[in-house]
User: What shape does this take?
Amino acid sequence: MNLQLTGRLVVARLDEVRAQFSTVADTRELCVDLSGIEALDTAGAWLIIDTQSAIQARGGRCDIVGASPLQGELLDVVRQSLPEKAAPTASRHDFVYWVEAIGKNTWRGILKLIEILSFFGAVLACFAGVVRHPSRLRLTALVHHMQQIGVNATPIVSLMAFLIGVVMAFQGAVQLRQFGAEVFVVDLIAISVLRELGILLTAIIVAGRSGAAFTAAIGSMKMREEIDAMRTLGLDPIEVLVLPRVLALVLVLPLLGFVADIMGLLGGGLMSWIELGVSPGMFQTRLYESVDVWHYAVGLIKAPFFAVIIGIIGSYEGMKVGGDAESLGSLTSTSVVLSIFLVILADALFSIFFAVVGV
Assistant: This one.
């Protein structure tokens, strides 16, 4: 079948010419004659090449004849510029496929862990340089981040811890009342809040609040090429952007944990008074008798490690942001999820360690 094209085959007439091609869409033998074409642009050339490719993909034949030398060059350029169509792959759901997927994901996780450790090493090296030359520490940025991470987060951390104390006292009262052991609700609240929940939930809130902010802020600078500009000016982005954030977290998170502990005990004491009739004096006496200072120290020891995890992950994901907004949103979500996962994992490891050493 022959298809004679005439006039101007340009983007303005593309719909009209496409209608001509639709009449021969199902043919297996086609000859496109371009001798009557007065003008041809890339849109028209794409339509011709796309039709030829579609026919050849069905096992047919499509010849293009009558093209001038310039038109032939344009067709060749368009043909070479079209992306290769990937061959459809059959979906696999067998056991080997699942094992293969697990292996690939595990290897990607190992590579990412190595990258994070390498980034952490770079931060440590930068910190060592600041220790040797304290004048390189950016105090203004450090104080600013301490305010953003600590002072501005105090209300939400206090409310969260207070409500956690209330919930634990109420649920503990329901269970302990069955055995006439209401007074032990003080032990339940104090040990749970001081050892685990106070600092753990604080770290989770900070990871969702400040860790995401780190990734978004550094990622936005990466998108606008401000980090490249820093390197051009001889500034180290880790020293300027990452180190102040990590140090601010290390300094502030123990204080936020202390606030969470106090508010959790206040919430638990208030609900114990209301629900069980445990007066504040009795609550305080029982607290002194049953709770050792190590319960508070255990939570305090975890805080700097959680802070380093949140700061490193948030900054690392921010440094990985590409030039589009999609990567910024994706890596911000990854930062929050990964930070919370690693914080909970570290807390589990600390629990095992303290149980082994008998603390």
Q: What stands out?
A: Residues 112-357 form one domain. DSSP finds twelve helices and three strands in the chain. The beta strands are 2-9, 29-40, 61-65. The first strand starts at residue 2 and ends at 9.
